[in-house]
Design a protein that fits this description.
Largest sheet: none
Distance between the termini: 42 Å
Number of strands: 0
Structural class: mainly alpha
Mean pLDDT: 88
Strand content: under 5%
Number of domains: 1
Shape: globular
Order of helices and strands: HHHHHHHH
Number of helices: 8
Low-confidence stretches: none
């Protein structure tokens, strides 16, 4: 068995399971939506406005920059270059609780890339963020990755690579900012 076969088998275990039901399917749709991250961003902005914390504003800007870089690079460079089809375009029996398959290519998952970038930036600035928020963001990132497979739009390797690439990009953005400010990266 090669890695692609293993990836397909893991996909089948997660996507085509007996646990699909209205509640879990809806939960995965919500977790996978951008609304969750936008709501968290708005809460952070509200906190920054109320506290007038300049460091928090910088952190918010770095998170936005890291997501913009990782999302754009994956969508416009990596996906077309790798050109790996999404399982919902390639396989016959795919559960699609969200009802949509998305674009043709799925490697890497942009949702996972963006979630990984957010976690990496927060981790690089742990002195500004409570540890429980970093753990919550990492947990949310893993749940987002799982949701993409559950919803039938990505293989497990798509989301694993996405998380890894997001962490690399987020760490690079944070380290670049620290070097620019003359801090130890």
């Amino acid at each position: 068995m090669d890695l692609l076969d293993l990836d397909r088998q893991l996909f089948a275990i997660i996507n085509q399971n007996a646990f699909h039901n209205f509640v879990l399917d809806r939960l995965m749709i919500v977790v996978s939506s951008h609304s969750l991250w936008v709501a968290l961003l708005l809460l952070a902005i509200i906190r920054a406005v109320i506290s007038k914390d300049r460091e928090l504003w910088r952190l918010i800007a770095l998170v936005i920059l890291a997501v913009a870089v990782s999302d754009s690079f994956c969508a416009y460079a990596l996906k077309p270059w790798v050109a790996r089809w999404r399982p919902c375009h390639e396989l016959a029996a795919v559960a699609l609780p969200g009802g949509r398959c998305g674009g043709l290519y799925g490697f890497p998952s942009n949702h996972a890339v963006n979630a990984g970038a957010v976690v990496a930036v927060l981790a690089q600035f742990a002195h500004l963020v409570r540890r429980r928020w970093i753990v919550a963001a990492a947990s949310a990132a893993l749940l987002v990755a799982l949701s993409r497979v559950w919803l039938g739009v990505h293989y497990p390797a798509d989301v694993a690579a996405g998380l890894l690439f997001g962490v690399i990009v987020g760490s690079a953005v944070a380290a670049s900012f620290k070097l620019w400010r003359g801090e130890r990266a």
